[in-house]
């Protein structure tokens, strides 16, 4: 192993330099105002949680967790997602009387990387959770809020894909009758690997018509503009399937009412690496971006792990991916630099005070401490000189 | 060991609930505007760094570090302070041409706790670093900026204590002539344990007049309103001491020019657990609070560890301690709750849209999902009902 150099950072860890950080801050600012205006309250949870509680419940594979041992000998993790810690908070004594709870967060989450493939090991998520409301209105509120937020960021070329984790599970279970096969098929769907999906079902030795039905399902149950087009995949004799499908139809009416028809596509093959989703789930895609900007869904199952029977739904967006598709917010701001020398210090302080009062960003700098003036000045829109024997402007 | 309960958090880890989080956000917002207006650019660095680089350079004792091992077998740490990562960034190729650099941050830092004594293991710091300016004006800028920022937060009853790490080191070294004794004495000064200081010097078997001089020093070299009062402790024959003292006097003139005379006390016994401070150092105290709100100083030595010879100075403040002394910012904001039932969903959505347009924070909620209406409503200033058979107001 080569020795670590002073300037190196761990695998997948990044610095945010001023320009990118300002852009992120602008996204956070829009998010704060937007989510608060809709009744969500921001909370923060610790970066470090117990492996036994949050680590195991988070539905992130063990090998992606950053683990550490504390001085008491307990295993800790850097939080791999925010939904699980928020459920911990929401089911605690302090808040559970006020459900339904609308909570929001900006937070870094952590996923260990095996090699430097450009994927970040720490990234910022923003999102909301609506805990304690099992109604279809709560799910509609999540999708509508995600849509309106993406628009508030100035992203207008985007799409929402809506599916149903419970319905997918039920359909695959009915056709394969094997938990192991369902899990395997969901993994292919997660990777959008339809070739792999078709190949693997051939190895299952299913009845011919079932195999044909499965292939028809993955080819035709996605990218649909109406839930009606999904009805042929529903088993009318399976009451739970019928119920879930009726829920999805009701959701689609609420989304239509909200004017989202043109933005929503239904996809029963949609699945998530988060195994805690039990009901509707959705993804937000910006056209032209290969990755989802974010995703969400109903996760009543996770609440049960915290001994709560109230339902919950929510979504999260990745700030790094939002930044890729957001248009530049503003032009370069004005920033004045005042150079001073030993005799003009007080004048420089006074001039800066005056400019700052006028709302102009102002830096004062002893000129003899600047080694490379042209490089130093690149970040300023205006330079003034309070220097013995030099005019006031360049 | 008792099994960990679902709701438990690791030792010293805290949740920030909405009310406290809003107050913190307000502090961040004031900080962002304030520091940017003075020419500082915000950056972010990873939560996780290499132990070999940041961990060792950070001057935090090893037992307070959260350590973990990554999948490549390297030892990592949760950053214990922000100054060291910022020096790593500032001395990297990308930024070093633009020095002097003015960088700012809000960031959580981590210190492992041995027992639950109420001390947080993760806390938020905000601060600035001015890297690449070795002049006394840079040090003055730090103290003045800290002072003006504390005032921008509405804290007016505070004090600044200014010392000099190099001068203290030189005076103690001259009197004891032992590195080990100097280290021991600095530890007593750090704990403000003057009794312990006096007791331990008696064990050093120093000449009587030296012992007397040391006791006089710790009793009289603090809480002084003029640097002149310190001159009796300076050895006129020690050129480096004379030089550092002259630097301190120049700094005091700049602070006086800035109108800070009444707020500044000089204290040559001031020291820091951060061993990288080499020049002036200072602390900000709110009257009535036992802890420093923050501290700062010149740390040219740390730059040397990153193979840089440019000087650097900065300060950081603890957000949790600022919150303790800040007056409440505003009264409770208005927040409207609209209850709806199945038939009034669309009306509720429209009404909310209208109110939000007017800038009124608005939540819509299906009434049948609310179990405990009085508890749920406590957070709202206004409740409206779009319910079959119920008037529009309570």
What does this structure look like?
The structure is a homodimer of 394-residue chains. With 394 residues, the first copy, chain A, is α/β, with parallel strands linked by helices. Chain A is built from 14 helices and 14 strands. In chain A, α5 runs parallel beside α10. The two termini of chain A are 52 Å apart. The interface between A and B is large, with 104 and 104 residues.
- Give the strand order, joined by hyphens, for the main sheet of chain A: 1-5-6-11-10-9-7-8
According to DSSP, the number of beta strands of chain A is: 14
The coarse silhouette of chain A is: elongated
What radius of gyration of chain A results from the CA coordinates? Answer: 26 Å
Class inferred from helices and paired strands of chain A: alpha/beta
The percentage of residues in β strands of chain A lies in 15-25%
How would you summarize the topology of this molecule?
2 copies of one chain form a homodimer.
Chain A: H1 18-37, E1 41-42, E2 48-50, H2 51-57, E3 67-69, E4 75-78, H3 83-90, H4 93-96, E5 101-110, E6 122-131, H5 136-152, E7 158-164, H6 165-176, H7 179-190, H8 194-202, H9 208-220, H10 239-257, E8 264-266, E9 280-286, E10 292-298, H11 300-305, E11 312-318, H12 319-325, E12 335-340, H13 345-357, E13 361-366, H14 373-377, E14 382-386
Parallel strand pairs in A: 1-5, 7-8, 12-13, 12-14
Antiparallel strand pairs in A: 2-4, 3-4, 5-6, 6-11, 7-9, 9-10, 10-11
């Amino acid at each position: 192993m080569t020795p670590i150099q002073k300037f190196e950072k761990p695998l997948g860890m990044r610095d945010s330099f001023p320009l990118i950080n300002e852009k992120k801050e602008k996204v956070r600012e829009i998010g704060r105002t937007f989510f608060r205006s809709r009744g969500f309250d921001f909370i923060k949870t610790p970066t470090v949680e117990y492996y036994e509680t949050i680590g195991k419940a988070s539905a992130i594979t063990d090998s992606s967790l950053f683990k550490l041992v504390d001085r008491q000998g307990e295993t800790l993790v850097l939080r791999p997602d925010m939904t699980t810690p928020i459920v911990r908070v929401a089911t605690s004594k302090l808040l559970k009387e006020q459900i339904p709870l609308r909570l929001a967060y900006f937070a870094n989450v952590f996923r260990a990387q095996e090699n430097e493939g450009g994927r970040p090991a720490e990234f910022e998520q923003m999102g909301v959770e609506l805990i304690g409301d099992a109604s279809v209105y709560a799910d509609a509120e999540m999708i509508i809020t995600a849509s309106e937020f993406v628009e508030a960021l100035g992203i207008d070329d985007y799409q929402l894909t809506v599916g149903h984790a419970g319905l997918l599970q039920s359909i695959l279970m009915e056709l394969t009758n094997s938990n192991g096969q369902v899990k395997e098929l969901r993994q292919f769907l997660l990777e959008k690997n339809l070739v792999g999906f078709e190949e693997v079902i051939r190895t299952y030795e299913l009845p011919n018509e079932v195999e044909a039905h499965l292939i028809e399902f993955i080819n035709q149950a996605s990218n649909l503009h109406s839930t009606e087009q999904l009805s042929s995949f529903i088993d009318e004799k399976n009451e739970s399937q019928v119920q879930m499908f009726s829920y999805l139809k009701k959701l689609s009416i609420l989304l239509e009412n909200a004017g989202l028809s043109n933005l929503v596509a239904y996809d029963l093959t949609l699945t998530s690496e988060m195994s805690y989703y039990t009901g509707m789930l959705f993804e937000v895609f910006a056209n032209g971006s290969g990755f989802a900007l974010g995703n969400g869904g109903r996760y009543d199952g996770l609440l049960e792990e915290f001994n709560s029977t109230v339902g919950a739904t929510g979504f999260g967006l990745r700030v790094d991916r939002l930044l890729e598709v957001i248009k530049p917010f503003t032009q370069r701001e004005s920033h004045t630099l005042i150079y001073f020398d030993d005799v003009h210090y007080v004048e420089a302080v006074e001039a800066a005070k005056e400019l700052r009062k006028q709302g102009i960003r102002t830096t004062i700098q002893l000129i003899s401490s600047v080694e490379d003036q042209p490089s130093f000045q690149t970040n300023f829109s205006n330079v003034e000189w309070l220097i013995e024997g030099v005019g006031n402007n360049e």
